[in-house]
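wait is this the right file?? whatever heres the structure
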């Protein structure tokens, strides 16, 4: 059976709404429309965006993209007090935290399930999610040029991909892949641009994982940032001189 048969992607191509800045009017709140407050450049928000797309929920969950550098005041005042993205407006409430939201969207909306049924895969999924915050923190540490950090991440992902047969972390495409790929994507670009380091060199499983993910429309549609702008932004954030 070819690996691609493990992917049941319900996503459709959509015309993306424009980003809202401080001058934008607030959309109606709690009018029965489900909204995903997001940012096209945010890896945390990208997780929920991928999940929405894969389940074919482009009509059910409307995107409200925000300019994180010039955010509308109404977002913090009226919508989500932490002012972070992503946030999901659904059934008269607004909730946040990307890992919670990908689980929520998967379990509360129609579309192909992204959660494993197999008990062993469920256990491994929880192990992967328990490590993901450490993984993300280490990604950003590597952006500062701290030596050896990148090797820990590459060893972890490469080993994880060897535990279950198939092209993805749990064999088939799942929330586990969605939790990790936005950060691996940025990690790959940043290390290539800044340190001239190819994270896939000598790691065929990792290379194949990234290649197979890039064939999934639900993910491809969320890759909306300019790589050079992203590198420049992170260099400024982490005060990297090179």
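ok assuming it is, sequence goes like this
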């Amino acid at each position: 059976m070819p690996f691609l048969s493990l992917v049941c992607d319900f996503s459709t191509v959509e015309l993306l709404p424009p980003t809202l800045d401080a001058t934008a009017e607030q959309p109606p709140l709690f009018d029965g429309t489900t909204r995903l407050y997001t940012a096209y450049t945010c890896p945390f928000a990208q997780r929920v965006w991928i999940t929405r797309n894969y389940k074919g929920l482009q009509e059910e969950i409307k995107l409200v993209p925000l300019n994180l550098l010039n955010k509308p005041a109404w977002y913090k005042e009226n919508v989500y007090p932490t002012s972070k993205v992503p946030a999901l407006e659904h059934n008269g409430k607004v909730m946040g935290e990307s890992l919670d939201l990908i689980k929520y969207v998967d379990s509360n909306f129609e579309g192909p399930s992204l959660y494993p049924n197999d008990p062993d895969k469920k256990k491994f999924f929880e192990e992967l999610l328990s490590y993901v915050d450490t993984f993300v923190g280490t990604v950003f540490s590597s952006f500062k040029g701290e030596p050896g950090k990148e090797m820990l991440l590459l060893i972890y992902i490469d080993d994880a991909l060897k535990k279950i047969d198939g092209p993805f972390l749990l064999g088939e495409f799942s929330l586990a892949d969605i939790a990790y790929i936005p950060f691996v994507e940025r990690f790959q670009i940043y290390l290539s641009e800044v340190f001239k380091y190819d994270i896939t060199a000598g790691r065929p499983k990792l290379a194949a994982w990234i290649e197979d993910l890039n064939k999934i429309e639900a993910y491809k549609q969320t890759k909306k940032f300019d790589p050079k702008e992203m590198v420049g932004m992170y260099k400024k954030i982490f005060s990297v001189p090179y």
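The two ends are 47 Å apart (CA to CA). so i think its the right one actually
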